Amino acid sequence: MDPLGIDGAWYHTPRVHTDPRGAFHEAFKSADLPHGFELAQVNCSVSSRGALRGVHFADVPPGQAKYVMCTNGSVMDVVVDLRAGSPTFGRWEAMTLDDQTHRAVLIAEGLGHAFLALSDQATVVYLCSQPYAPGREHGVHPLDPDLGIAWPQDIEPVLSGKDAEAPTVAAALASGLLPDYDTCKRFYSTLH
Questions:
Q1: pLDDT tens-digit map of 53-72
Q2: Active-site residue, 56 included
Q3: Catalytic, out of 12, 56, 113, 138
Q4: Which of 73, 110, 135, 148 could disulfide-link 179, Cβ–Cβ 3.0 to 4.6 Å?
C-alpha cells in the first residue's frame, strides 16, 4: 500500500499476471494493509457515465473504512479529509480506478469518499469495515465550491436527491456533523 497525501488514505496497484487465458491479480490481501480491517459488508454499485456518488462518511467511532476498486469501466475516485481539526482538513485527492490497472484505494474511518463514473458504465466494489447504518451515515455536497473538487468539465454530474441536498462542508462543520480528528486518531490506535 502506498500512502496518498492525506493521512489515512492509501492506494494499491496490484501486480497483474497475464497469459493466453487472460489475467489474474490479488484484489485484496488483508496482510498488506497498514492497519486492521475487519470485513463486515461488500457493496457493489453499477453506474452510468456521469453518476456522482458521495461525498459520504460515517460517525467515528466506529466509522466505516472502505477498500474501493472498479471492476468494470473507470471512475474518478476522490478521498476528502473531513476530520475537523486535521492538518489536511478540506484537502482532497483523486485517482482513476479502472479495470485496466486494477488499482484500489483504502480509506480510513472519518474520511469522505466520492466517485464519478467516467465510462459508459462502471462497476465499483467496496469492502466496508462496518455494515451500513443509516443513522451514522452522512454526506457533504460533492459540488461544494469550497471543496473545489476538479470534476471533469466534459461530464455532466448526476446526483441522487440525498447527495444533491447534502450540506456544504462549512455548514456540516458549523453543525458539528463532521468527525473530529483527535477522536479518529484515538480510534485508529485501537485497530490491530
A1: 999 999 999 999 999 999 99
A2: yes
A3: 56
A4: 110
